[in-house]
Amino acid sequence: MGVSGDGPNPWLAIGAAASPTLHAQELRFAWERFLGDDEEAEELVRAPIADSWRRSLEAGVDWSGHRLAPVVADEEEAHDRYEESPLGRHSALIHACLSAMADEMGYLIVVSDARGMLLSIEGSNAVRRRAAEDMNFAEGVLWSEPGAGTNAIGTAIAANHAVQVFGPEHFNEPVQRWTCSAAPIHDPDTGALLGVIDLTGDFSTVHPHSLAVATATNVATYGPPWM
Known about the structure:
The chain is an alpha+beta fold. It has 8 helices and 5 strands. Strands 2-1-5-4-3 form a 5-stranded antiparallel β-sheet, with helices on both faces. Strand 1 and strand 2 (about 120) form a beta hairpin. Helix 4 packs antiparallel against helix 8.
């Protein structure tokens, strides 16, 4: 059995009773073994994370952090795209669904487009500044898996599933001080991916409820996930 936290849900990073610090140490060990070509390392993490690590490696993502997620639009253009997007029309509802948990836990409320480009980031100025400095987490930056490696936004897009990513489950080392929970949003009529709603914060604040809240916001915005 791997170190995926309590409970059987492979998309959830950690159970409420687990120790974030201990869990992070176990995951860091697995990540280092994976980068060292240890074939058994993938058995130590959840299947969605192992799959994402393989995709990140095949995409040539720099795990060391010397090359961070790329900027693909400036902040003003990102804001304009958000206002024009289907998700932008629901910005007040997204804020209402996520703000209570975000304020309590110190999370950022994040919306990306279908490619993984960050369109909107709400939250504490201090947390936003730290996220931008630590890992280039800012509007207009591409957080797809090929752009940033394993992360909740990019992995939710790649797997087409809501997912929580914690600490050293992130492929890129500077991102391992963070935790994130993301849910992809689809057009209810066509099933086309519209974007991703995400909660991001310090890894010490990880909680299973953040994934449930992100998923519930998906449902509140566009109804049950498209099938």
